[in-house]
Structure formats: C-alpha cells, structure tokens
Amino acid sequence: MTTIAEMPAGFADKVLSAQSTFRSVMDAMARPGSVQRVAADVGTPAGMMRGAAAIALTLFDHDTPIWLDAAMSATPDVARWLKFHASAPVVGDSSIASFALIGDAANLPALERFAFGSSEYPDRSTTLILQVDSLTQGPTFELKGPGIDGSALLQAMIKPRDLFQRLSINEVLFPRGIDVVLVHDDHIVAIPRTTRLIASGV
Amino acid sequence: MNAPTYNFAYLDEQTKRMIRRAILKAIAIPGYQVPFASREMPMPYGWGTGGVQVTAAILGPDDVLKVIDQGSDDTTNAISIRKFFGKTAGVATTTSTTDATVIQTRHRIPEASLHAGQVLVYQVPIPEPLRFLEPRETETRRMHALAEYGLMHVKLYEDIARFGHIATAYAYPVKVNARYVMDPSPTPKFDNPKLDNCAALQLFGAGREKRIYAIPPYTTVVSLDFEDHPFTRYRFNAPCALCGADNSYLDEIVTDDKGGRMFVCSDTDFCEQRQAAGHHGTESAAPHKEKAHV
C-alpha cells in the first residue's frame, strides 16, 4: 500500500502554480493549435505526464467527476494521487465525467461515450486530456476557427491518427461537443470544439 | 501571530478553479453564457463584481493591470478596483492601454488597438440580450439552443418603424462566430466594430446574473442589422476639446448653467497620450491654451 510519504508531491506552490498553469491552458484554448508550456513544478504519479498532472491540480476538485482510461487506471497510483491532492471523484461512467484523462490515446474510446452537453447547456460536456507522443514533430495539421488568425499549423504525433476526423462531429453537434487538450511532457495544445481541420500532411 | 492576509487575488482556490473551468468553456463556445457560482464580493452588485471575479481568477504576479470605467482611469470605480488588486494580489498597475496585460473595463473598449496576449475583462450588468424581450430564463435558454433570434430582429425593426433608424445606441446586440447572439455589455455601439477580429481575448463577467462568456481572439463578431438599414457607428460631431481627436468616442461635459458644454475623449489614456504628443484642442490647459486662442 502506498503511504503518504511515498505519494508523489503536488504543486510546490498551490496558488501561483495553479494560476500560471491556468493561464497556459487559457492561452492554449484561446489560440487553438499553438503550443503552450506548463512551467510549474509538479509531482507526477506513474503514467501521468507533467502537463496532465498540472492541469489536474489546476482544474479538478470535488465538483468534477474524472474518468480514467485503462492506461491511467492500470495501477491505483493515479486515482489515489488525484483523490489525495484534488479530492476529485473518479467515476466509471465516462458519460458523466467533467474531465477524462487518456494515458493511452491509441485506445481512445468512441467519442459518443463522453458527455457532449445539451443544446441548452453545451458547457456540460467532457473535456478530454489526451497524452500524445509529440507536439513539435510529426505530421502537420492545418487548423482554422475562432482564436486562429487565418490558419494555424500544428506538428504533432497524435496516436489515434484519425483524431481530427473523429472530432469533425463537433461541426455537426455545435454548440454541443468535445473540447480536447493534447499534452506531451510539459507542452500543451488545446483543440476546442470550434476548431476545424483544413488539411493534414505527413 | 501573523496578521490575517487574503489569499492571492482575494478569492479562495476552490472558487478560482470553478471560475477557471467556466472561462475555458466560455472560450470553447464563443458567445454562450456559462453559468457560474458567483460569490459575494466586497463591493455592491453593479460595481463590477463579475468582472472582478474573472480578473481575480486569471491574474498572476507578473500581470500589469489597467482598470477603466467609461474609458476613464480616474473614476471611483476604476481606482477602487485597481487598488483592490494592488492590495490583494500585489500586481503592477498602469493607465497605459499598450502596457497592460489585463484590462478590466466598464462600458468602453479602449481606443488604442489591443494586441495579442492581452485580456480584456468586461463588467456586465445584464448578460442576456433577449432578457427585455423575454423575461423567462427557461425560454431565452431555449431560444439560444435553437438559434431562434427572430425576436431581436423584430425589436430592431420596431426601432426603425418608430424612429426611422435603429435607435439602440448601447448594448447593441452582436452575433458571435455566426451562432450566438450576445450582449457586448452596455458599451456604446461606437465600440462594436472593435469586437470583431480583435487580437486580444475578451472575457465577460456578470456577477449578479452569474454568467461568464467570452470572445476568443480573431473571432467574427457581427452587429445585427438589415440590408436596407446597415449598422452605423455614432459619435458627437465635434473634435475633442482637449486633444483635438476627431475619431475618438466623446463624452459631453456641461460646463455652466447657460448651455455651455464641451466634448472630450471618453478614453482618458488615449487623450493624455495625444496631448503629450503635442496635439491640442480648443480648451486645452496651459501651455496649449494660449496657442489655441491665437
């Protein structure tokens, strides 16, 4: 059994680390496709990248049900760490989750399994936090939408290769939909539901 | 024992997390009003409790804060909010539009164009543009869900039928990203074109009504109008009496009880920058005054 002494730490400075991490996430969300950096020092349980851990401590609490994929829940470390540092309830039903932490993006479940929100309350949707292989190298994705001046180029190794094809349901569902935050180490990129793929290269 | 101090930027961390989640949803769904659990703030409703909560949730120690009230840096509301964050967050404050990273505003958009990386936080009294047309929240929510905005066009049409033109001069409704009709807060419609394709992130906080909404940078914002009655801006047909600007939004100031009046820029920073650069108007203070009367 893990004792408190063995538990990875949270933020070094709870208040200012959460603030700087939030500003990175807000900038990422306001400028889809741009790569933002999470600067805060944060302990990470096994299987969780620094960016994902920092976002968890910034946005999760007792009001936000969290869903973990098979990779994240392979050991009880992540759930225990979330419970200790964020008091966030981990739920088995992905359709009621506020956030879903995806450690193994290649096995991302069908998006229909998450909450899209309702037409009256489209904000009641699941935000996916997806750990990917790279946000600086790999195939190029050309994006457009609010927050982007003309078009934005994102170079990323994203495991469900068809992620953007799957996210095209956002266009039909809008204003309902799924917002995604891609994480690699301490880099983050946000793909809100308004972002559209123009073209993808190799 | 240490004297009790406030948490950084006044709000507790759980409140900040809740507001931050609402802000992220608001950015993801431009123009949609996200409900949030607005807190009691140490100022009355109507003094910017919504804007203050949004500012408190985003503000960091490296930020430079500017607060304006109807364009002015020197009014009671602007000064007290600036001091509030100076005290509770220890942030640097400024009156310069270009130097600020976060600008909290009541009812104006600065004249100087905003740049990428800046955040403009609006204080909003009534976030629902349809509220005076339909008082029931359940109904306005349904109307937004169905993008059923005919009623708003009827209202603008009734303006034309009664006055011959669209008489709405402030809180002029806009459509954001071709989907949600949004109230830009009671800014004069002169400012509406600045909402469109703005480089800065725009966040709106309504404290009493418990709503947060947003316009991401570079987002299409269209003022509602008709083909035969297109949207027009309005300003007093006069140059600023202090700096001579003929393209800024003006306040009318009554100077005596004999009908005397002068028009001056509502944006005090813009006006002062222009005066410092040597521009002057008919009523400029010395040393320009002598020159102006020659």
Protein architecture, described:
The complex is a heterodimer of chains A (about 200) and B (about 290). With about 200 residues, chain A is an alpha/beta fold. Helices cover about 25% and strands about 20% of the residues of chain A. Chain A has five helices and nine strands. Chain A has helices spanning about 15-30, 50-60, 75-85, 165, 170-175; strands spanning about 35, 65-70, 100, 125-130, 140-145, 150-155, 180-185, 185-190, 195-200. In chain A, the strands form two sheets. In chain A, strands 1-8-7-4-3-2 form a six-stranded mixed beta sheet, with helices on one face. Chain A starts with 13 loop residues before the first helix and ends with a strand. The mean pLDDT of chain A is about 95. Chain B is of the alpha/beta class. Chain B has two domains: about 15-130 and about 175-220, 3-Layer(aba) Sandwich (Rossmann fold), CATH 3.40.50.11310; about 235-294, no CATH class. Chain B has helices at about 15-30, 50-60, 75-90, 135-145, 150-165, 190-195, 270-275, 290-294; strands spanning about 35, 65-70, 90-95, 100-105, 120-125, 175, 180, 200-205, 210-215, 220-225, 250-255, 260-265. A seven-stranded mixed beta sheet of chain B has the order 1-9-8-5-4-2-3. A three-stranded antiparallel beta sheet of chain B has the order 7-6-10. In chain B, strand 2 (about 65-70), helix 3 (about 75-90) and strand 3 (about 90-95) form a beta-alpha-beta unit. Chain B is globular, with a radius of gyration of 20 Å. Chains A and B meet through helix 1 of A and helix 1, strand 1 and helix 4 of B.
Short description:
Chain A is α/β, with parallel strands linked by helices.
